[in-house]
């Protein structure tokens, strides 16, 4: 097979293209009606009250930490096995990142590890937790919420890998990733390899109206356009009996983290077939699991998981470098997710070192993400499986 098979790939249809072209021909390229339409559609899909569209997932994380008031010296707990932005957002505000190890089976932030960390310090030491729905597997946020409430902590759910993912709570109720039932805020990414692509882009979801209002303001330079919110006088604004239509106020230091209307149009079109994409991802995962079951040289994702969104399909194996290079020779571009954040040179300067997160470090030595995207054909997937088995049995 001569075709390149990447670990992830966007799927752009004619409907997507038509949606973008229609918006490009409209009166608005930015700050227009498509933004609110996308936000409303996404909030309905996730099952939350509010959604705020932003420039990318990193912007979403930054705005969340700003809205929650993270400041210099605040300590926030997160996982080492994630993209660096999950931790960096705390540093943007001057806060301190405290890493806690993963569960060896799920690869998610280990609840017991976080509990031990909290118990080892006086109450008030930590301000919040940022759990990550890594690879698309939903974190049990009900359990984290109970722990967070005990220590007066907020939660930001990094659900970039998991739109459409869910877990069942203690009452057997389906809890969609990002629905706001347990986390104060949640964030999503619309990078091309994610479930929903808009080129770049992100979304913040919440059920908290006060946080929603802060996010709206921070997203656009800290500017408000509301008579009820203005602090300067009508006279100063240039009005007589009311504020003039042009008037606005910058009331806090915000950012330009807006999404464009044509990106939102693409996002809406992609959202319309999100469930179809999830279904196909789960089919691919089941095929991988069956193919690698009982193979001594592969540790898979511990069985089919209900509610898994399968942004990634990760295996652990020996001779990871050899397999990676062998697959690349055959035009299969696997990827590694992730180099543990605490061992990035930037974070080493704060004292993190090898041995601090043994489960994460062991995971990194063998992890490799296999091709996983809805347009991966059965023939292509079988080619990947055959090459992996062939490498280890040769």
Can you put this structure into words, describing what you see?
With 394 residues, the chain is an alpha/beta fold. It is built from 14 helices and 16 strands. It has a 7-stranded mixed β-sheet with strand order 2-10-9-6-5-3-4, sandwiched between helices. It has a 3-stranded antiparallel β-sheet with strand order 13-14-16. Strands 1-15 form a two-stranded parallel ribbon. The longest helix is centred in the last third of the chain and has 19 residues, at 274-292.
Structural class: alpha/beta
CATH architecture term of the largest domain:
3-Layer(aba) Sandwich
Q: What's the CATH superfamily of the largest domain, by name? A: Type I PLP-dependent aspartate aminotransferase-like (Major domain)
Based on Cα principal axes, name the global outline. globular
User: Span between N and C termini?
Assistant: 19 Å
Number of contiguous helices: 14
For the record, what CATH class of the largest domain applies? Alpha Beta
Strand sequence of the main sheet, in spatial order?
2-10-9-6-5-3-4
Q: How helical, in percent, are the residues?
A: 25-40%
String of helices and strands: EHHEHEHEHEHEEEEEHEHEHHEEHEHHEH
Radius of gyration: 22 Å
Identify low-pLDDT runs.
none
What is the CATH topology of the largest domain? Aspartate Aminotransferase, domain 2
Chain-averaged pLDDT: 97
The largest pleated sheet is described as:
7 strands, mixed
């Amino acid at each position: 097979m001569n075709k390149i098979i990447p670990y992830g790939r966007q799927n752009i249809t004619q409907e997507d293209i038509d949606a973008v072209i229609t918006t490009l021909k409209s009166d608005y390229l930015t700050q227009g009606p498509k933004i609110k339409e996308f936000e409303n559609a996404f909030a309905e899909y996730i099952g939350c009250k509010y959604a705020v569209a932003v420039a990318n997932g990193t912007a979403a994380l930054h705005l969340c930490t700003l809205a929650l008031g993270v400041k210099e010296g605040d300590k926030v707990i997160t996982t080492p096995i994630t993209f660096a932005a999950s931790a960096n957002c705390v540093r943007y505000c001057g806060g301190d990142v405290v890493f806690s190890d993963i569960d060896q089976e799920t690869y998610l932030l280990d609840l017991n590890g976080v509990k031990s960390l909290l118990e080892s310090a006086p109450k008030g030491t930590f301000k919040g937790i940022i759990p990550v729905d890594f690879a698309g597997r939903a974190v049990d946020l009900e359990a984290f919420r109970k722990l967070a409430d005990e220590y007066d902590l907020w939660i930001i759910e990094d659900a970039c890998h998991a739109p459409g993912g869910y877990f069942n709570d203690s009452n057997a109720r389906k809890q969609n990733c990002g629905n706001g039932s347990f986390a104060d805020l949640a964030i999503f990414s619309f990078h091309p390899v994610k479930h929903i692509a808009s080129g770049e882009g992100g979304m913040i979801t919440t059920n908290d109206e006060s946080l929603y209002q802060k996010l709206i303001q921070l997203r656009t330079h800290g500017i408000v356009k509301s008579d009820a919110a203005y602090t300067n006088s009508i006279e100063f604004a240039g009005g007589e009996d009311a504020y003039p239509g042009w008037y606005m106020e910058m009331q806090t230091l915000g950012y330009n983290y807006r999404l464009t209307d044509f990106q939102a149009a693409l996002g809406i079109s992609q959202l319309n077939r999100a469930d179809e994409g999830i279904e196909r991802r789960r089919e691919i995962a089941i095929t991988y699991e069956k193919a690698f079951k009982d193979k001594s040289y592969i540790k898979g994702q511990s069985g089919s998981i209900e509610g898994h969104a399968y942004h990634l399909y990760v295996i652990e194996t020996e001779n990871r470098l050899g397999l990676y290079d062998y697959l690349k020779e055959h035009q299969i571009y696997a990827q590694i997710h992730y180099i543990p954040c605490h061992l990035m040179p930037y974070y080493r300067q704060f004292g993190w070192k090898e041995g601090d997160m043994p489960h994460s470090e062991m995971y990194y030595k063998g992890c490799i993400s296999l091709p996983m995207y809805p347009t991966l054909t059965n023939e292509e997937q079988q080619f990947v499986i055959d090459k992996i088995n062939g490498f280890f049995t040769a």
